[in-house]
Amino acid sequence: MKLIVTGGAGFIGSNLVLHLHENYPDLQILNIDKLTYASDTGYLKSIKNSKRYHFSKIDLVDRKAVRDVVQRWQPDGVFHLAAESHVDNSIKGPEPFVLSNVVGTFNILEECRQLWHEQEGKTKSGNHLPKDSVKRFLHVSTDEVYGTLGDDGLFSEETPYAPNSPYSASKAGSDFLVRSYYHTYGMNVVITNCSNNYGPHQHDEKLIPTVIRHALSSEPIPVYGKGDNVRDWLFVTDHCEALTKVFFDGKDGEQYNIGGDNEWKNLDLVRQICDILNEEVGEGPDGDYKNLISFVTDRPGHDYRYAIDASKIKKKLKWKPSKDFKEMLRTTIQWYIERYKVKA
Ligand SMILES: NC(=O)c1ccc[n+]([C@@H]2O[C@H](COP(=O)([O-])OP(=O)(O)OC[C@H]3O[C@@H](n4cnc5c(N)ncnc54)[C@H](O)[C@@H]3O)[C@@H](O)[C@H]2O)c1
User: Which DSSP symbol is given to 298?
Assistant: First the structure.
């Protein structure tokens, strides 16, 4: 089976490519990625020379480039992860988010639809792909499309969309486009909405790497507002396992929420990271890295709480988060300690 993974040089994409390569020896994987500032192919060096792994530098906004690669590779399936992903950047400059996340999703979706129509033929009713089409497009999205929660409740697949940042709005737009291809063209699509991921290979700009980097260089550790915002954290390989479950076993046209049942206030998460750093590298300034915590002006439109009801994927696809948070947080921190040591 021939797959395309888009955004495979990013945080989740590179972990997913390694996961697919290791666990599915029959797959041929083509990673297509624009290689933005957020990417790093170094994490994939262990499979660089594998006959089952291929890479092509493509900007999904370039329709012709997307058409050429889809026609040349003839994928049986797509894991679509490529996106501009940092909320703060979307506030400073939303345009790349609209281009990569909405237009880019349209280009790869539409080129796959055209290819699969050519390969499998149109049905009598015109636009719909044959019912037994095995080609599948998995669109990877976020829980941020649902907006914000108060202290109670969880996001389910039925929660109405209410995105509050240009990032989440662009992801919501792409989710709707993918959904429409199921209803309009009968295309075999599945959509996932996952909570915050953590783990090795996340870009320096994100919360956990930022805390570790600032702590290790004895700089103030920035925490938005009072640090009250709540996020549900999932280890990245648990997300990768959920994505493969949905890709291979999910029902076409369906949406699946993925989460870690693991809510933390930002301030409590930052404190835990500092405690682990105190143990791993010796006590920080004035005997404790927590002394570096510094509250900064809150992000505009900052959603208060995200929390996922993942009962559908647990029940229907027998997936559940398998990694222990405290253990994997320590493993993640150890990875960044090594990374920042090498960079220093
Ligand atoms: N990180 C999270 O916590 C999280 C949670 C839920 C969902 N998601 C979703 O998962 C996906 C991956 O997130 P991530 O954290 O790995 O992001 P990332 O920023 O680490 O990686 C994104 C990758 O996409 C590539 N890319 C961006 N624009 C492109 C374009 N126009 N053409 C081709 N490639 C392009 C980048 O070069 C990069 O390698 C995104 O769609 C994101 O919305 C992320």
Answer: P
